[in-house]
Structure formats: C-alpha cells, structure tokens
Amino acid sequence: MKTTLQILMVMTLFFIFYSCKKEDDVQCFSCTSAETLDFEICRESNGNASINGVDTQTPYDVYLADLQEEGVICK
Fold it and tell me: Where are the domains of the chain?
C-alpha cells in the first residue's frame, strides 16, 4: 500500500511540474506596420499565434508568414 501511495505522489508531482512548465513555452515579439498600430504576436504553448493576448486559432508559423508577406516587421 505504501508503494502505491509513493508512486501516486511521484506521478502527481511530475504532472504538476510538467503542467507548469508548459506555460513557460510562450514566446512573444513586438510587430510594427505602416498600416496598423504596434502589436504583440506570441507563439502560444498550443502552437497557435495570439495577437495582443487573443488566440487566433491559426498556427503561429502560418500567421507570421502571412504578416510578413504584408510587410509587417516583428522583432
């Protein structure tokens, strides 16, 4: 019984650590364009792009490529 409890505790700690770590995966950049106000684009932990904190439901790489085609510069 003690072994089962220890295994459950280890699994719980691993799950908590892994869940918290995924939140750190967000990467953000500032973008500028002659046609819009400055904005922030982020690669969310789910792989989607978000603009100023709003998930676009579009993969980050696709969204960024479309912005760059329009002349948007992100740093």
Answer: 25-75
Task: Record the tokens describing residue 5, joined without a space.
Answer: 């409890």
CB 33 within 8 A of CB 41: no
Q: Would you give the DSSP letter of residue 23?
A: H
3-state secondary structure of 55: strand
Largest distance between two CA atoms of the chain: 66
Q: What three-state secondary structure class fits 3?
A: helix
Residue position matching structure tokens 């479309």: 66
- For the segment 39-57, what is each residue's pLDDT rounded down to a tens digit? 999 999 999 999 999 999 9
Q: How far apart are CA 49 and CA 67, in angstroms?
A: 11
